[in-house]
Amino acid sequence: MIVWWRMARPLQLLSIVLVYTLGALMAQAMTEAFDSARFIGSLLVLLPVAVSVHYANEYADVETDALTARTPFSGGSGAFMQSNLPRRAQHAYNHADQRQHQPNYQGDPRAD
Question: For the segment 58-107, what is each residue's pLDDT rounded down to a tens digit?
Fold first, then answer.
């Protein structure tokens, strides 16, 4: 469970909430209206989207993140490498990614 929390990048999530709240407060100051249900509902959509982007980034950048010095805001969390994902799954992803970057790659013929 700790791995999932680290991959979600809680400091970045906190930053997202703070920036979103600042924007909502600025809008309230300009319009003198605040819809708390809309604000909370939007956060309930925004945070899972942000977490899913962080998870996808951890997965896609696992090799580059291994070569980078990590900071709280860049270089990945390093948690994906510590997860229990089978090496076979990582290899399959890397192989597919390399094929897509070949000059004459036409896509996966099995996708038709």
Answer: 777 777 777 777 776 677 777 767 666 654 554 554 455 455 555 555 55
Cβ burial 85-112 (10 Å sphere, 16+ → b, else e) = eeeeeeeeeeeeeeeeeeeeeeeeeeee
pTM over 0.85: no
The answer to whether the Cα torsion of 68, 100, 91, 77 is positive or negative is: positive
3-state secondary structure of 74: coil
Q: Where are the domains of the chain?
A: 2-111
List, in sequence order, the alpha helices (H) in the chain. 2-7, 10-31, 36-60, 62-66, 87-100
Q: In which band, very low, low, confident or very high, does the pLDDT at 109 lie, cut at 50, 70 and 90? A: low
What b/e string do you get for 43-65 counting C-beta neighbours within 10 Å, with b at 16 or more?
Answer: eeeeeeebbeebbebbbeebeeb
